[in-house]
Amino acid sequence: MMLRKLGCHPARMHARQPLLSGMRAFMARTAPPRLGRERIDPAPHMLGNDVLGDCTAAGIGNHVRATAALAGYQIAVGTDDAVRFYARSTGYVPGNPLTDQGGVEVDVLATAMRVGYGLTDQTLFPLWGSADINDLNGIRNITAGLSAAYLGVRLAMADVWEDATGSLSPVWDTVTPASHGDPTPGSAGGHCLLLWDYDGTEDTDLITLLTWGSLQKATWRWLRSRLMEAHGLAWRQLLPNGILAPTGQDWDALVTANEAYLTGMS
């Protein structure tokens, strides 16, 4: 058995939180029909999510690493970095398991925007915004243009089923053997993970998720059934040339939305 923790609270919306709908051209353009990144290793780490419900913090750390990988290098993000940010963004007190209660994605993202995601040698500040979970084209644009989509999902017991070696099912899907447990979304709990690439846009086409230090395959129909929130993170200083990133007025709209949210928080 491999230890894997959950820790994403039910999706919430805050007044004036940044929305990606303001990036009209970026979100509305037709996303690539396929996003193949088989030759790029995003090198996700567990970042403590085997012993703590810090998936929201681990997701941000692995988003940094995924963005760097697209540019052909890597950024060191360690477990201590993720746990330190988890404590700052959720109230977790290291060493006190009673305070390991997981996180709310929008609160965690707001903390990263306000105080940064601290690493050993630098602190990184993302721009961020939320997307409509029914806008799969927009979520694909986030994945293609901002390195990965930061998602909150409701996992079923059937999703966390393990074989005798402790491995998850090779592909998460909505059709599962009865022996894998309850297939009801949310029966296992909430989890934060990243959408990295996809083979196509049909219901049964495969996507790649970054979670628990590994690459997990799933179908689009599985994601649609489990998805409860979707966000884009923009590490503008890290994004490589050639990626389908926002431009011009779309960047300005995202910056303005983040600045307005920060002003409202102060």
Looking at this protein, list some descriptive labels:
two-stranded antiparallel ribbon, alpha+beta, 9 strands
Structure in words:
The chain is of the alpha+beta class. 30% of the residues lie in helices and 18% in strands. It has one domain (31-234): Alpha-Beta Complex (Cathepsin B, Chain A). It has helices spanning 24-28, 55-70, 79-90, 105-115, 136-145, 220-226, 248-265, and strands spanning 117-118, 123-124, 127-131, 149-155, 171-172, 189-198, 206-211, 214-219, 227-234. It has a seven-stranded mixed sheet, with helices on both faces. The chain has a two-stranded antiparallel sheet with strand order 1-2. The longest helix is centred in the last third of the chain and has 18 residues, at 248-265. The radius of gyration is 17 Å and the shape is globular. The termini are far apart. This is Peptidase C39-like domain-containing protein. It comes from Komagataeibacter diospyri.
